[in-house]
Amino acid sequence: MIGVLGGMGPLATLDFFSKVLAATPASGDADHVPLLIQSDPRIPPRPPAIVGDGVSPLPALLAGRDRLIEAGAKALVMPCNTAHFWYADLIKGCSVPFISIVDASCNELQHKVNPGAHIGIIATRATLVAKIFDAPLQRAGYTPMVPNDHQMDTLVLPGIEFVKSSQSVLGGHLIEQAVQSLLDQGASAVILACTETPLALDAVQSGLRPRTIDSTAALARRCVAWWQAHR
What we know:
Blueprint: E1 2-6, H1 10-23, E2 35-39, H2 46-51, H3 58-70, E3 75-77, H4 87-91, E4 98-99, H5 101-110, E5 118-122, H6 125-129, H7 134-139, E6 143-145, H8 149-164, H9 168-184, E7 189-192, H10 197-203, E8 212-214, H11 215-230
Parallel strand pairs: 1-2, 1-3, 3-4, 5-6, 5-7, 7-8
């Protein structure tokens, strides 16, 4: 059984569950990955804790981690990119494997885009400020590209909030503009490094999806592969 440390946000957790099902080669119920899902929206917001004076979500994340392990999880995943700011703290003393959405996304990128390319990152400002994706991308030979402050304030952040408030179509129009801008500036691909952003693009049936790396889907496929290797 794989434990899902979710609720950040709830719709993104639901999307992850759906993508695990879609990624599983199953002929019946028993072939699917057993998941133990904690969807707890009460976990303190991640961005204010990174870029402001918000309450740290780490105690709640650690409590959720331990709750899932005690309930029988043999591996863990967390479908939230910004929360991976605390990934090093979460794997410290963790008794089971903790599959990283960042590693999963960068691994998929390497199968689609050759090293040396510029790669756009659409994410919360906190994810960008913390450079959660920068070092992994640079180690793989890529150059990260991010939206400018105006694009963050008028496109990316409002787009994410629209999804969180169940207005994904409105969010999709904004996120699509942000992705297109990075592609126009020379990005070979764009990592959707916020789990709300794939939902936004899908809500408007964006034609840009083939040029993106869906971090949620990447984590789902890694989750399925882990289960098939360890079941």
